[in-house]
Amino acid sequence: MNCLLAFSLFAAVLPSTINQSALYPAGPQAATPYYLWNVFAWVFGILWVIVVGFMIVGLCYRGRATRISELAGEKAVATGAAFTAIILLALIVISSAIARDIATDQSQANELKVRVTGHQWWWEFQYQNGPADRFLTTANELHIPIGRPVRMEVRSGDVIHSFWVPSLSPKIDAIPDHFNEIVFQADKVGTYRGQCAEFCGLQHAHMGFLVVAETPADFQKWFNHQLDPSQDNLSAEEQQGRQVFLSSPCVVCHTVRGTSAFGGIAPDLTHLASRTTIAAALLSNTPGNLSGWITDSQRVKPGTQMPPIDIASQDMQPLLSYLDALK
């Protein structure tokens, strides 16, 4: 109980720009669990004060001549038990009502549909609005328009994961060969961090992702650009880097639309440079981090499915230049 109250007080003084906290909801689906949190925190906080108050009174009167009769003691215990039962029943009713409210999201005509697949240890997002040629697949960075419901079809490609964006949505499990659905909406422009919330192996703690909530106009601009293949207008160094990439083992697993790389078991890299992070939100997307990730991913993220890639030293800079051109 002390920890609960201390955490509540600590969270209250944190800046409102925090992007991974259920105590700073940025949409209606996150606001409902936040309301439940407040109810529990206040009820348990008041009960804690009452219990400590009685304990202090008891300590102050310990050893004095006045004693509570056995009958009075029995009445006090019975009253406390009844009071506890009433409080627990009320909390159960409130929790059930809120859970039912979360689970009864109705389909809306303007909702954005995204299929989410959890992998060890990264996230795949496929936008499925419109015809199939307008489907878009990306990884580890989900862009959504503010004020528009987003319906997530969540599944797993290997073991059980759990999709959770604390500031935007409740948790939903990602299960192999099964789809779970959750609807959420962002009402504030910003970048919110999500996380796998179900232990899924060695790098579970490093299976994060970002949700970028932006204006509808900015989202549509981003979406249209992401549909484009990789650009072909490259400098001489970038062309050299493309050849390095296409002759490396990277093409077995990764896709770069507009090239002969069409591997489907790892993140799509067509617009890699437009993302702010790599390795499932573990590292900032900088040339230094990207170089380290390519050459020795096991040192950065032990157990990851990506093996170290042997790139000649003279080829690394052209390769990084090419990857930086994938915007």
Overview of the structural elements:
The structure is a single chain. By secondary structure, the protein is of the alpha+beta class. The chain has three domains: 96 residues, no CATH class; 115 residues, Immunoglobulin-like (Sandwich); 89 residues, Sandwich (Immunoglobulin-like), CATH 2.60.40.420. It is built from nine helices and twelve strands. The strands form three sheets. The chain has a five-stranded mixed beta sheet. The protein has a five-stranded mixed beta sheet with strand order 4-10-9-6-7, with helices on one face. Helix 2 packs antiparallel against helix 3. The protein is elongated, with a radius of gyration of 26 Å. The two termini are 49 Å apart. 26% of the residues are buried. The N terminus is likely disordered.
